[in-house]
Design brief:
The complex is a heterotrimer of chains A (295), B (557) and C (300).
Chain A (H helix, E strand, L loop, with lengths): L5 H32 L3 H5 L13 H7 L2 H32 L9 H13 L4 H10 L7 H4 L6 H12 L3 H9 L4 H12 L1 H17 L2 H6 L8 H5 L16 H4 L6 H28 L4 H4 L2
Helix pairs in contact in A: 1-15, 4-8, 4-11, 8-11, 11-15
Chain B lengths: L1 H23 L31 E9 L15 H10 L1 E10 L3 H11 L5 E4 L1 H9 L7 H6 L3 H7 L3 H5 L2 E2 L2 E2 L1 E3 L10 E5 H6 L8 H13 L11 E3 L14 H5 L8 E3 L5 E3 L4 H15 L12 H9 L3 E6 L3 H12 L5 E4 L12 E2 L6 E4 L6 H13 L18 E2 L2 E2 L13 H15 L7 H14 L6 H7 L4 H11 L3 E2 L8 H22 L5 H29 L1
Parallel strand pairs in B: 1-2, 1-3, 8-11, 13-17
Antiparallel strand pairs in B: 3-14, 4-5, 6-14, 7-11, 7-12, 9-10, 15-16
Helix pairs in contact in B: 13-17, 15-16, 16-17, 19-20
Chain C lengths: L1 H28 L10 E2 L5 H4 L1 E2 L3 H7 L4 H32 L3 H12 L6 H11 L6 H8 L14 H26 L3 H9 L4 H25 L7 H7 L5 H4 L2 H11 L3 H30 L5
Antiparallel strand pairs in C: 1-2
Helix pairs in contact in C: 3-14, 4-8, 4-10, 5-8, 8-10, 10-14
Classes of the chains: A mainly alpha (295), B alpha/beta (557), C mainly alpha (300).
Chain lengths: 295, 557, 300
Amino acid sequence: MLNRTKSEKVFAIFNYLILSFAAFACLLPLLNVLAISFSSSAAAAAGYVKLWPVDFTLASYKYALGKSEFIRSFWVSVRRVMMGYAVNMIMTISVAYPLSKEKDTFRARNVYAWFFIITMMFSGGLIPTFMTVKSLGLLDSLWALVLPGAVPIFNVILLMNFFRGIPKEIEEAAYIDGATHWTTLFRIYLPLSLPSLATISLFVLVGHWNGWFDGMIYMNRPRNWPLQTYLRTILISPDVTNYQTSSEELAGMRQVSERTFKAAQVFLAAAPILAVYPFLQKYFMKGLVVGSVKG
Amino acid sequence: MKNAIKRFSTLALVIMIVLSLTACGQNGKTPTVEPTTAPTAGADSDDLLAKYDPAIDMTAWRFLNNGIQFAEGDDIENNVWIDYYREVFGINLTYDWVVPEEQYEQKMNIAVASGDLPDLMWLNNKNLIDLAENDLLYDLTELYETRTSDFTKSILEQDITSFNTAKIGGKLMAIPHTGSAIDSLQILYIRTDWLENLNLEMPTTMQELLAVAEAFTNDDPDQNGQDDTYGLGLTKNFIKDNHFGATGFFAGYHGYVRRWIDDGNGGVVYGSIQPEIKEGLLELQRMYAEGQIDPEFGVKDRNKVQEAIASGKLGIMYGGMSTPGAILKFNVVNDPNAKWEAIELVSIDNETAMPITKMPVTRYYGVNKNFKHPEAIMKLVEAGSAGYARDNKDTADEWQDKLSHVDGIAVWQYQVIGYEPAKKNLIAHHNVVEALETGDTSNLNLEEQGYYDRIKLYEAGDREHYGDAHIFGTPSSFDIIDRYVQSEDYLYDKFYGSPTATMVERNATLQAMEEEVFTNIIMGAPIDTFDKFVEDWKNLGGDDITKELNEWYKSSK
Amino acid sequence: MVGKNKLRRELPLHILIIPGVILVFIFHYIPMFGIMMAFQKFVPAKGFWNSDWVGLDNFRYIFNMPNIWNVMWNTVYIAVMKIAANLVVPIVFALLLNEVRKNSFKRTIQTIIYFPHFLSWVILGGVLIDVLSPTSGIINQFLGIFGIDPIYFLGNAKWFPYTLVITNTWKEFGYNTIVYLAALTAIDPTLYEAAVVDGAGRWKQTWHITLPGILPIVTLMTVLSLGNVLNAGFDQVFNLYSPSVYSTGDVIDTMVYRIGMVEAQFSVSAAIGLFKSVISFVLVVISNKLANKYAGYRVF
């Protein structure tokens, strides 16, 4: 600490300022949306709400949370995330590990690699994928939300590259000691890859939690909808359905006071992810400054 | 975990099957296996509403209307209408799938493409035509003739042109979900407390309206000492939007933007390329330059422009019959002094300004060709009209009270086949107004009673119900619709039905061009660009579309 | 002998990877029969096996659209700028965070900049109109302090592409920083210790240790993001654009959307999709080769 030069001190001050400014710029719009979610729809509709709620009300939250469908679809989402997380992580690791080997230790490696990479770019489209899922009898099953994306190729490639960064000497020493691939993977690779595993965990969790489109396509019955799919059906102020008509004209009314609901939805939907965030953050932030505090 | 392993082994097996299926090049459509049912009572009975015994099964698909609500324990597969169909008609209705309204088109297309159709399906015009042409739909012509009550027919055929869109090659291939064309006529809304503040009269001509817009902009109508108000509200999508659109404004110049109109010689022409539009654009350009239109209207959607109304910055807008409930309500709730009035469109000359509407059919109820009990559909069609009968209050059975609203929940939305009389809302307005005058509510049906009750709440001081009072009460938007209907001073878009070949190919480009050019003109581009747009429009496919539509128009007469 | 031994050593690797191969085969390769849609006039009611074959008509249709080259240019222009910004800004912020010694500060900042990722463009559309307004927007008021005339960020065709890039970067940079933070943790701390002993300052440490340390991941992200050169981001553009900025803001995906609004056209979308796939595949393959040649790092 003592040997900081003057220029380093100046830099440190600027650094703090820049980072604080960036955080500020990210925080303001969020506070605005949060304030809207706690405001009356008339105040929100008039654009009166800035950073503090106007006519404070919990109506939007009460409306969403007060329904049994909310709890039901929440649990569908929780189950989906748990299953999806388990499958995704197992698949990511079990594909990334062999692919991280060089061609001389795993001769078929390149064939496999391109087999996976091609699917990042080419896709058959929605209809044939739906037909495949349907012919497997997976409609209305949680597996329909888990299996089609079971191997997240982007994450595989990411993890594969992190695996490659692990010094070869450690592995070679283990191999000479008679370690199998199994022990190498579990005793060396995984423990050394906690930061990247935490990163991928976050991507996987966010992906499964935020996914709504597949729920809509593959789940035929509303009782099987995950939370994000369900939320798309209730973003509407409760009083407008009083008008008993389905004419296009009145249908337009139904979009009216959705603003406060939409705002509340952001927080209802993001809350679980934000709750697990610190636990994952711990891993990819760990040990960042090891080199500098000494000396 | 055991389950997972089982799943995986099943998967492995199924891969083989899928592979062999794909390899064989079969069409993936599994033939619909129909349960062999013994002839059932009800099928051949002359009684339209006879109950099936034993009950029959029927599958369907549908979307969930926006904002649909269920009582605790109910859902779309388990509710009063499902019970009703089962108990009264002996029909066990189940849904193959349901989706939120916004995703309906997509899911329907996927379902149609993947090939197994339910017995009863909600369809759009395009899929109706395609399925009918591929012989997948049941021809309902005869059933409709013989098995529909006169009352139901009278409702479905109130607007015969729109009913006929369900006919393909002269055959009735679906029951149309008819709605109301008059409900979407344009209405002009003026903030009257501002008129009073400035000692202005309610405008009756376009010239007067323009003067009011200027005064609303420059003369501080809200008397807050700040120059913070605008004359006319427009959205970035003013060509197509209903609230804050310009259709009503152009109609004041007898121009009809994005509509097909009579050319005076028995043919049709495209409204947006007519000289009247140029005139209207020129006026909007002037208003924009003079600050009467929000300088940022070009990026604002309806929610954003609505802010200006709700916060008291805007005093004139074109809208529709629902505007008081959808838009103005927020202004009235925020500002106890705010007053609005709906008026008919104003004209630039002695000719009346005519609002324009279009064919209201948005969906169709089609029946699978392989369905064993197509006549069962007609019972559901009958059930759909029962709520509109006015004379059956005494004869109504135990069900009638439960099928519309229960504890404030709009359960009528659960019905699988519903449609509306073209003048339903207008009639509701008449009845509600009459009941408000006389205090006699005996003639009101349940829906109308709801409006009546909420208007009473509004009169007692609850401004949240401003919309009910100014849509269905009086003075209200329906007063204006009523006047349009009485005087027959309104037009139809001459084109309905599915887009022609060139429209499919070119319309996206042409419409984008139209939006861009019109917006730029308002924001100050030279007015000559309009003439160039007309040329471009014609050359880039507009002429072909006009030709195709005229052929269609002559054949459809 | 050696061969057999090698096979035995390789066998577990095959076993590990096979389940993933099977799943990808089922859910990605089997549905690829849908690509034939691009060469058909696909009608849902007819299905894949009865729709008419039209050869390259769908591609001809797309490339004969009157404004296709303008739209194509807009797409590439916006996408390339986004790719660049989404690489540079997160790396810079990861490095800046790396320099912060106070752990609580670092964590707080990192958490906050990650928030905007959770706001959808629908919501942000409304917020941004206010923030970027030329008359009352906070950004223009701030710029006014420096005597800069108000800029109509969302409504001026000249500015619109940059507005897209800046707002997108703002929304995603925190999320994208995470990958680089993870990469930073993998750098061997003893390297820094050795550098300090050699008398290297912070700047030298960053240049000689930190940057080379995360170079593989940077290369990886660059190569992968090049596949997005025809993806300008539908959600964002759709929610922010307006007729007055069509000339610079209309991109392939919004155009396809509007085509579909007139009437759902599966084949046209499929053809566009296939075209985009081929382009991004070629770019990814080439950039992978180049990365190998010049950076000495093979991504795949």
